[in-house]
């Protein structure tokens, strides 16, 4: 099972980025997917997650309305659309997957996730 993130980079404050998480070796529809981020000197925190059914999503309270998680089953890829970025969004972003007990929900506790990508750097700077 492999997850590969892409789409990170340097963006100005107020800008947008879309991160991609391509899965190989397994079908995303059977796994819950989460996005996490870790800034220097800070703990890894949950950003968003999507249930394996695709029908349920959750977001960190501070990010609601700016970030959107989505999935393209045909491409076996999950996306994170990030809008109105600010300096506090600077971090390494990771996607991760776990086998859910309940298909209709996901959790944002990183200890629940079994497979992780290598991360992609997002830097918000003028």
Helix content: under 10%
Structural class: mainly beta
Q: How many DSSP helices?
A: 0
| Overall average residue pLDDT | 95
N-end to C-end Cα span? 37 Å
Measured by DSSP, the beta-strand proportion falls in: over 45%
Outline the low-pLDDT stretches: none
Largest sheet: 7 strands, mixed
From N to C, what is the helix and strand string? EEEEEEEEEEE
Shape: globular
The tally of strands reads: 11
CA-based gyration radius: 13 Å
Which key terms come to mind for this protein?
single chain, seven-stranded mixed beta sheet, 0% helix, mainly beta, 126 residues
List the helices and strands and how they pair.
Elements: E1 2-6, E2 9-11, E3 17-24, E4 32-38, E5 45-50, E6 57-59, E7 67-72, E8 77-82, E9 91-98, E10 115-116, E11 120-124
Parallel strand pairs: 2-11
Antiparallel strand pairs: 1-3, 3-8, 4-5, 4-9, 5-6, 7-8, 9-10, 9-11
Description:
With 126 residues, the protein is an all-beta fold. Helices cover 0% and strands 47% of the residues. The chain has no helices and 11 strands. It starts with a strand and ends with a strand.
Summarize the structure.
The protein has 126 residues and is an all-beta fold. It contains no helices and 11 strands. It is globular.
């Amino acid at each position: 099972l492999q997850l590969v993130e892409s789409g990170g980079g340097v963006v100005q404050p107020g800008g947008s980025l879309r991160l991609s998480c391509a899965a190989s070796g397994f079908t995303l529809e059977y796994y819950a997917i989460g996005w996490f981020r870790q800034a220097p000197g800070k703990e890894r925190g949950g950003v968003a997650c999507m249930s394996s059914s695709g029908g349920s999503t959750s977001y960190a309270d501070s990010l609601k309305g700016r970030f959107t998680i989505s999935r393209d089953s045909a491409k076996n890829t999950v996306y994170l659309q990030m809008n109105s970025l600010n300096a506090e969004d600077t971090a390494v972003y990771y996607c991760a997957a776990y086998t859910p007990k309940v298909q209709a929900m996901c959790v944002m506790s990183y200890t629940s996730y079994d497979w992780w990508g290598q991360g992609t750097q997002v830097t918000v700077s003028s």
